[in-house]
């Protein structure tokens, strides 16, 4: 019997990977795959009032709750939110993390992004990609003898180059999963992001009122299938089906990783 596929989702903060990969995570877990979430930072700057250990403990608990809901495990690395750089320390910490898990595929963000932590995370994954198999680098951790496939999740940034959708799958049926994951990360989606992005202060509101506010903004979203993703869906499923999709998860294959195998492709785009 073949070993189950091992997928590692690497993000900058303790909610990034859950939000960006909840649909494919749900599918992978349902197919018997092993999924590990990794946050490069503790998320200790992501709140308008909470600070220090209180915020770290809150975000760790939220991350573990989300991971348990999705059937994954969560590892949070000890770097400061808002201060992550592609340093040797961060690279070697991530290197050991990847080698210890031995992923077949890594999902992460591209290195072009508005947030410096996101950019650093994408760069760190690139920096680790070849060195995963070099024994003289981090010699205390066994090297990987097989390079993982590396997939970038979708973004809207165009400088220096737009995201390219190589694979995409419908995510309409994953919307409630996504909403539940957002609710798991209450400090972010019920506190911080309404305050930071929407300029809405929910202080003093009950939990139920905060969830109601999140639901109202969530339901306002009319879809994320742009021309590039639509073309990808059309290639994979045909035009008639593609036109019915409002929400999708899509991925760009990184040139720094291994090619996508037939088995992985089926997991990414299969509809069973």
UniProtKB/TrEMBL annotation:
What SUPFAM superfamilies does the entry give?
A: LmbE-like
Superkingdom to which the source organism belongs: Bacteria
Do you know which Pfam families this protein is assigned to?
PIG-L
Q: Which GO terms describe its molecular function?
A: hydrolase activity, acting on carbon-nitrogen (but not peptide) bonds, in linear amides
Designated name of the protein: PIG-L family deacetylase
Task: Name the source organism.
Answer: Hominenteromicrobium mulieris
């Amino acid at each position: 019997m073949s070993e189950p596929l091992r997928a590692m989702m690497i993000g900058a903060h303790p909610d990034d990977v859950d939000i960006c990969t909840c649909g494919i995570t749900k599918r992978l877990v349902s197919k018997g795959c092993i999924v590990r979430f990794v946050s490069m930072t503790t998320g200790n700057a992501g709140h308008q009032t909470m600070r220090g250990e209180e915020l770290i403990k809150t975000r760790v608990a939220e991350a573990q709750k989300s991971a348990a809901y999705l059937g994954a495990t969560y590892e949070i690395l000890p770097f400061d939110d808002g201060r992550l750089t592609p340093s040797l320390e961060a690279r070697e910490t991530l290197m050991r993390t990847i080698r210890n898990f031995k992923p077949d595929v890594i999902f992460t963000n591209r290195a072009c992004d508005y947030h410096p932590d996101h950019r650093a995370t994408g760069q760190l994954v690139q920096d680790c990609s070849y060195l995963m198999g070099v024994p003289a680098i981090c010699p205390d951790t066994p090297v990987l003898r097989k390079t993982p496939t590396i997939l970038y999740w979708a973004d809207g940034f165009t400088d220096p180059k737009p995201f390219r959708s190589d694979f995409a799958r419908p995510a309409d049926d994953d919307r409630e999963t996504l909403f539940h994951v957002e609710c798991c990360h209450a400090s972010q989606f019920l506190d911080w992001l309404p305050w930071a992005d929407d300029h809405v202060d929910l202080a003093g509101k009950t939990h139920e009122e905060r969830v109601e506010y999140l639901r109202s903004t969530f339901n306002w979203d009319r879809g994320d299938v742009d021309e590039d993703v639509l073309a990808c869906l059309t290639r994979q499923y045909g035009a008639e089906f593609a036109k019915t999709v409002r929400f999708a998860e899509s991925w760009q294959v990184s040139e720094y990783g291994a090619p996508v195998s037939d088995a992985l492709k089926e997991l990414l785009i299969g509809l069973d």
